[in-house]
Amino acid sequence: MATLNQFKNFTSGLAQTALMPVLFMGHGSPMNGIEVNEFSSKWADIARKMPTPQAVLVISAHWFTKGTKITAMDLPPTIHDFGGFPQALFDVQYPASGNPILAQETADLVKSTAIILDHDWGLDHGAWSVIKHMYPEANIPVLQLSIDYTKDARYHYDLAKELALLRKKGVLILSSGNMVHNLRMMSWEMINGGGYDWAIEANEKFKTAILNKDHQPLINYQTMGSEIMMGIPTPEHYLPLMYTIGLQNENESATLFNDKAVAGSLTMTSVQVG
């Protein structure tokens, strides 16, 4: 865990601020990146109501790596990591700057593992599809932190706590995934709304634990029941949630928004802490 003295030695130019909120965004379809709909409109509304961050650190389901990496380039490219969508989606560019100094300082905060400075990735759609609506002028630096696929939920929950001091420097820590995410069981008949019974039940269990600040079941999600495992056949879209709850202080409550199931087997339920 970083000490306060280490934090005071930051040289990235970020000023001390009030504690920034923390977000988990259910990002859903890449099309949400170019559509103005109930989900993207709420992302924009959330941004208007919170303090303007000095930087954004995104933990996206779509950067799954061996080891933990952080983007450390001046100008992270916009990554179109999907297929089969309209050309308009591939034409999107989100030209936010990076912040290599902040990347190094963030890596230095983490003592439990070595954070690798990355110059090859950029901003994938788990990041830009959401942030494009929040900060459309792309005038706030954005960094991405990868998810180490060799580690369990407890590791990511604990790693989040080592990032807590960033909140005092005006850094918005935004995780992006979906609590329930089983693309193999998608229903095109429910593409605009609706969920299977098991998806709704899984989501309700998650919501109850989040609102009660009962983090242990969320960390040990494999023990929460068969509907949970149907909702999380692979962990990449769920693990970003660990960063949001891991950064929650004892005196902070959580609120939910965009609480809706779509396509039968996905939930857009999102969380704000602080």
Report on the architecture of this protein.
Its cofactor is Zn(2+). This protein has a single domain, classed as LigB-like (Protocatechuate 4,5-dioxygenase, Chain B). The protein is 30% helix and 18% strand. It has helices spanning 4-8, 38-49, 87-90, 100-109, 125-134, 153-161, 197-211, 215-219, 226-231, 240-246, and strands spanning 22-26, 55-65, 68-71, 115-118, 142-148, 171-177, 254-257, 261-262, 266-267, 270-273. Strands 5-2-6-1-10-7 form a six-stranded mixed β-sheet, with helices on both faces. Strands 3-4 form a two-stranded parallel ribbon. A two-stranded antiparallel sheet has the order 8-9. A hairpin with a 3-residue loop joins strand 8 (261-262) and strand 9. 48% of the residues are buried. Mean pLDDT is 94; it is low at 1-8.
What share of the residues lie within helices? 25-40%
The number of E-state strands comes to: 10
For this structure, what is the CATH homologous superfamily? LigB-like
- The DSSP helix count reads 10
- Text of the CATH class: Alpha Beta
Q: Write the CATH fold name.
A: Protocatechuate 4,5-dioxygenase, Chain B
How big is the Rg?
A: 17 Å
Poorly predicted ranges: 1-8
SSE class: alpha/beta
Strand coverage percent = 15-25%
Instruction: Characterize the biggest β-sheet.
Output: 6 strands, mixed
How would you sum up the global shape? Answer: globular
Average of per-residue pLDDT values: 94
CA-CA gap between termini: 21 Å
CATH architecture annotation name: 3-Layer(aba) Sandwich
Strand order of the largest sheet: 5-2-6-1-10-7
One letter per element, helices H and strands E, the order comes to HEHEEHHEHEHEHHHHEEEE
